[in-house]
Write a structure and sequence with these properties.
Layout lengths: L3 E6 L3 E2 L9 E2 L10 E2 L8 E7 L2 H8 L7 E8 L4 H9 L2 E2 L2 E2 L4 E5 L20 E8 L6 H8 L4 E9 L2 E2 L8 E4 L5 H5 L16 H16 L10
Parallel strand pairs: 2-3, 5-11
Antiparallel strand pairs: 1-5, 1-13, 4-5, 6-10, 6-11, 7-8, 9-10, 11-12
Length: 230
């Protein structure tokens, strides 16, 4: 039976097991060498990490075709208008391509959210806003680049959910083992079956079709520019 561990990664912790004399890593918290991270978090991001010793389950969580939603609480600089939210929802053009449609909405500061150490630096003259953003792909620093692209620099980023797995009341640096026998139905949601509210956990075929259609349309509307130099 697969072993699964949920871990709340603090700010400035490296998502790696290799020792680092200068920085804190996962090796300072987790000592089981059979575990592998299913979906990394950047050094300056916080929140839910999932670790497992099961390769198939790892793929179910991180492979783009699995289309598992990852949910983030994002504190941004500025106040988003309706157009910025629409851009995030429909897809943002980044240097490495168009992002898939996402879910994005304004929220209040999440209840029970711990104080970050060190605190974020913000300008007193500019308001900040909390967003909830759900994506089902994993481009490098994707959420931060998405918000920056619509004029909303990210100040703090906390992952709260991966597919059906929730951060809940897990505190920074804490971990808990997931009982795969007791909660087998939850594992089934990762691809073998879906719960009634599966829209919160997985990307829909409709959303994937929307971005495919947009990309085809963009290609049709692109005119040849002649050969480029090497």
């Amino acid at each position: 039976m697969a072993q699964i561990v949920l871990f709340n990664k603090s700010f400035n912790v490296l998502t790696q097991f290799r020792s680092d004399d200068a920085r804190i890593t996962l090796a300072d918290f987790i000592h089981d060498k059979s575990l592998r991270v299913a979906g990394r978090l950047d050094y300056d991001s916080e929140g839910l990490l999932l670790l497992t010793d099961d390769g198939q389950l790892n793929q179910q969580l991180v492979h783009p075709q699995a289309r598992q939603y990852k949910t983030y609480w994002v504190q941004v600089e500025g106040t988003p208008d309706a157009q910025a939210l629409i851009q995030l929802q429909q897809g943002v053009t980044l240097k490495d391509g168009l992002t898939l449609p996402a879910r994005a909405k304004v929220i209040s500061e999440p209840d029970g959210l711990w104080a970050r150490q060190p605190p974020i630096r913000f300008r007193a003259s500019i308001p900040t806003t909390w967003l909830e953003i759900q994506i089902c792909e994993g481009k490098n620093r994707q959420v931060r680049r998405m918000t920056a692209a619509v004029g909303l620099p990210t100040l703090r980023l906390v992952r709260s959910q991966i597919g059906p797995f929730l951060l809940e009341d897990l505190q920074p640096g804490e971990l808990k083992s997931f009982d795969t026998l007791k909660d087998a139905s939850l594992l089934a949601q990762l691809g073998w079956s879906l719960r009634a509210d599966d829209s919160a956990a997985t990307c829909s075929d409709t959303e994937s079709a929307r971005v495919t259609s947009r990309r085809r349309s963009n290609r049709r509307n692109t005119f040849p520019m002649g050969p480029r130099g090497k």
